[in-house]
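Exercise: predict the fold of this chain.
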Amino acid sequence: MTRSKRIRHIALSADDSLQLQVRQLRLRDYPKDHSGVPERAHRHQFHELIWISKGRGRQEIDGVEMQIKPRTMYVIAAGQVHRFVRGANLVGTIIRFADEFLPATPSHDASRIKQGLLNDPNRRLQIHVAASQIGAIEQLLELMLAEFTDTDDVSREAVLTHLLQILLIKLDCAADADTQIASEPADHRERQFREFLSLVETHYRDQHGVDYYAGELALSPRDLSRQTTRFIGKSAKRMIEERLILEAKRHLRYTAVSVKEVAYRLGFKDPSHFSKRFKQVAGISPADYRLLRGD
């Protein structure tokens, strides 16, 4: 089998401004029914949840091949390598989402979900849901699919955000109760990548430069960017910027504070520098973004 020099990166569709997708999974006889050739291994630039309600199969996540079984949630974090190998009468639901949909509740904040459920170096690749919780999980998935397909609903995004947050909180609790954890440890480079994510989550407000994070990981800035590009197809600088701008968007959308105050909250001494950085990443000024979101 020929191998390309780079693992293909898959991003969410640019046509979907929600940065969230919900779709049904239906594989009768895979890969026979899909040209007979299994999909190539690929990295996700988003988080993916795959719920299997019926059927059997096999898949690989970061080189770990596992059986696909009913009543199980498979968790694929951004940067992981994934491919389906086989599938027979698989029925389920697939949810893909960007970081902006991570929960922001006091008891289950985004950093806990991100570092525990999604980015733990010895993370759970699969969550076996207790029988008592299966009905609640499947009901949430049905609600999300119905809401996602209702494109005329003006409250669509808000409803999907809250439904996903509830689902992630339930899965986080289920993962804590589940004793089946991926047994193979992450390699050194992957651990450093996950540590970088954790550092960014902790210090993005006060540390905007790659040098700080590289120093904390005992890497050169160039080596750190090579690792982030390897795992998620983005430079370390870009990842830091995107985390900053994600938080800025949250402030602009959900609070009434001024653009200047948002800049100060995110560690920018010069609001004009913040506005310039925001536009470079988001393609729109902070003021225009606030108007666009209807605030």
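Check your answer against the key: The beta strands are 8-10, 20-30, 42-44, 47-61, 64-68, 72-76, 81-97, 126-128.
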